[in-house]
Each structure stands twice: as structure tokens, then as C-alpha cells.
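ok trying this again, last paste got cut off
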Amino acid sequence: MKTIVVCLIVIFSIIQYSEQLQNLLNTSMHKCITCLCHARTGCYRRENCARYSISRSYWETAGFPTLPGDSPDSDASYNRCINNENCILNSIVGYTSTFNNLDCNCDGVYDCQDMLKLHLFGEQCGNIMDSNQVRRFNNCASDNNLSRMTSNDLCQVDAQ
């Protein structure tokens, strides 16, 4: 009986941890996150974005995205994730999704601009004070056919 219980625990653990990451490479979400990271760090490498803005706590809030075979309760899994392009993308999508598609600029659309503010400020949707971040985001958005930030005004956002 004890052997059966142990086997079942192992099987359920494997099933739970083998959930595949969504492939976000070469998608519109990939373009958005490229611009988000460029705005944040000034470069286009997601690894730099991860190093500067995906803390262990951020990764946990994102739902512990892991590579196949990794366990979410390990520092090694976190470190492998923030060095893997697709895992970085899934971490940022997972984190920003925890705020229920919060419309940070109150334009009626949840888009890359909202994700940028959520990534930087969480549900507070703060104002981006660094004009270089706005400029970098807008330049990248133009290059990738994404909507540019036209105003950095805050609106009254009801966090859910």
C-alpha cells in the first residue's frame, strides 16, 4: 500500500511539473515583451530584462514557469528560467496576467502599454517618469506595429 501511495505521488508530481510552457516565440506577445524589455533596460535582450526585473518573487507571482523537468520549488529552476527566452516571456505574461488584464491607461483596451505599466509597477499602474523609457518603448512599438504611448496620464484604475 505504501508503495502505491509513493508511486501515485510521483506520478502526480511529474504531471504537475511537466506542464509545457506556451510557445510565445515569434508571436505578437513576443514583440510586445521585446518592447517592454527594451523600454526597461535599453537593450533588446530578454536575458537583461530578466536580470533587472524578474526577481524570484516576481517569478513566483507569475506562477513559477519552469522548463520541462524542472520543479518550481528550486532556485536552479528559477535561474534556468530567467536564462531561457521562452520562459522569460511566460514569466512576464504570467505576472502581468495576475492583475486580470487591468487597463492601466483607461483606454478600454488591455494591450502592451498596460503590460508595460504592470510589469514596472504592479497593480498600481504607476506613471512612467523616465522619458527615455517612453521613448524607447515608442520607437520599438513603431518598429513592431504596436500602439505607441500617446499619453502617460494616469486614470482612476480599479484594481480587482
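PB: full thing came through this time. The CA atoms of residues 142 and 148 lie 7 Å apart.
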